[in-house]
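Input record (one chain):
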Amino acid sequence: MQRLNQLQHRLREAIMAADADGTAVRVASKTVNATRGLSSPEHLRIYRRAVTGTFKRALGQLYPVTMRLLGQQFFDGMVCRYMRITPSLSPDLADYGSSFAEFIEGFEPAAGLPYLPDVARLEWAWHRAFSAADETALNIDALSEVPESDRARLLFALPASASLLASQYPVQRIWQVNQEDWSGSEEVNLDEGAARLIIWRRGYDMRIDPLHDSEWSLLSALTQNMPMRKLSQSFPDMATLLPHCVEHGWIAGFKLGESTD
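The corresponding structure, as predicted from the sequence alone:
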């Protein structure tokens, strides 16, 4: 008798195989019972189509702009390639697709759209922000109670929903003009400049905020757990820059790092 893991492996190989009539499908079909109306391979092909369709719909919902830019047929073909080399590691389909942008970077048929991987990164960040747990704003009262002697150890954190994205292309504009409810000009100038963005959620308000150089540098430093002592050395305008970022909601928490004594 086949071991369960061997059976599962054969079925997965058959489901993910590019050729619906190939060796993997024929081998796996031997473990599937035929019925009066359908042969074993036909049963397996139905399951293949169901699984493939599920992944296409899931990634289409996560990456609607990417799909619109490519067209449905091209996008579906790309998803089929992606799913064959990227197994799902979670029972929740909302967790699937985190590496899709990296896959697009190496997908030669999409090389004519060099901005596409960053558009996909923005869409994943949007999905991540939408799905993140709710949280409150930075507790200013608690921050003010930190003793002066401990403030050099402060570590600030971005909202749990937040992602930073840097692109040499105007990906926010590309994303914007490809929304279903967009009614303005659809013109996009790829040479209009790079984008530095924070994608996050404040309550029910989904946001894509452009960042200036100093804002980007500070928020990037916070993701590296740079303590207040080093931040003050690296940012001469820290006294105004930090409150500015707090006011915008880009800093949502703090803790004390290890003592340097």
